[in-house]
What does this fold into?
Amino acid sequence: MNKSICSALGVIAACILPAFVLAQSGVVKQVKLSNFDLQSSALVNATGTELSNTQYHSPVYWFPVKVPSTVLTGLVANHIYPDPYQGLNNMLIPDASDQFNKEYNLEQYSHLPNDPNPWKKPYWYRTTFKVPAADKGRRFQLIFKGINYRAAVWLNGKQIADSTQMAGMFAEHNLDVSNIIKAGAENALAVKIYPLDYPGYPAKEQLKALGPFYENGGPTGDIGKNVTMLCSSGWDWIPPVRDRNMGIWQPVFLRTSGAVTIGRPKLITDLPSLPDTGTAKLSLNLTLTNNTTATHGGKLTVSIKPENFAGAPVQFSQPVVVLAGAEKAVELNADKISQLIIHQPKLWWPNGYGKANLYRIRMQYAEGNTVSDDTTFVFGIRKVASKAETTANGFVRRKFYVNGKEVHLVGGAWVPDMMVNRDSARYDYEMHLCRNANVNLVRIWGGGVTEPDAFWNAADKYGQMVWSDFWITGDTQGEFKGSPDWPLEGNVFIKNVESTIYRIRNHPSLLVWTGGNEGHARKELYDIMRNDIITLDGTRPFIPSSSGFAKLPEGWKGSWPDDMPSGVYSGGPYEWKDPKDYYKLADAAKDWVFKDRNRPTVTTTIYNSAEDHP
It folds into this structure.
């Protein structure tokens, strides 16, 4: 068994000491758990309780993997399956659909001796790590940034989460393990990853020309029964991903803190006197949670300093008492705290309109000289807005504004890596390319994934506005095929929506939320999603869909805050056009006031007309 622990990643702290000890004791730190072992439950008879025992020894070989890693990514890295990015290698890997395997004779390639479909049963991820003895009595959280599709978790012989709690591809899961961690000793973690509830029948392989209308999402679109990466069953730009990207596809962290922890900070930047941008007002909301049976009285300190330009930092503190076992909401705003008024702020501007200036905010809660919790993130001072207006020919046109200035959106669809294998270096490189190409907006397409933190950090850095669809498409939610009753578990969809809003709402690059791509969720989910965006964020617009294909039924609320239609149109062309032909189409088509034609056949589509927004 591979028992080494990960390298360290410090949102707040972190160095790695010899013998894989987590870090210096008595400080707030966050460490990335990277080195896991992987094996199918078809070959492992042990229970989660047994696997999370440090004395466990396996009678079968386990594959070492670097998390984040889907199951197929790990098996390809261990040379069990050929690289599906190359040639026709995807036809040498069994699919998650039994019917598909039989039709294409893929069962013969299964690496499991008695299972022609290697993706039907769960897979185990296991690792061990040490915690310093000096950290005894501290608080510990296991943070799973993203799993697919369900997970159950055991630590040191005790189950701490089951597959009903951890479901869906886009939710972050924070698990309190303070009473289970063994300080000064080795700890064992076992994670059971379950495949998609409904892997679906995938799209046909692109072995010959299939015309412009490919079986996006499969012939029946039943991948939409899940809350997942819908294009993993195949689209017109991607072959079916054989395991549907089951696995731990985002990082896992162990976080150490004191008795009182900081949660869900929300930073709002306002420019109250637009078009004058000489003064910015900030407000900060957060939650302090007392995880003990004793009342704690401490001091919350907030500091703000420039991140990518020279300038003077500001700092202030205020006492906060948190009762035993209680949560306390803290609301700080410029009307009461003068340090939250920023004079002559350096604004965050999208690419082509100015520099993407960034600040860093740090929040610490301390009792005396002992820091209980410490967290930080980068933000930009900017204000976004949208306005819908009706043109002379009756079409609704939508405009967007940043810092009071109307911005011309130039960009296209952003689609995920086939096996979600982008890392922070690749995100940075690709966002840099977008900037150099004079792109200022990327659209997170609804059939893909809401990208991880590294994407948003790079977008912030390079001035890329982001148009973010939720995981609804007409090819799975009934607009073209599939069913409006999908996803089947509405509670999983909403939990994933809310977790996503909390995770990315502080990024200045996020321009607009949309309810999906060429479709919309059923009313019960649509209404909750729209309301959550307003109440949990409320700083940027929401539009019902990224396409004119999706017409809201009578009586449904429209965009927010104007309650107008999306003002987005679709219908092609879905291929490259000579610029002369392109402008003729733009002149002739009445609905080209605001065009969504970015079928994601490439990572970025550049728009040529001021009338042609993505």
Observations:
- The first strand starts at residue 29 and ends at 33.
- DSSP finds eight helices and 28 strands in the chain.
- Residues 384-588 form a domain with the TIM Barrel fold (CATH 3.20.20.80).
- The chain has three domains: 18-197+245-255, 258-379, 384-588.
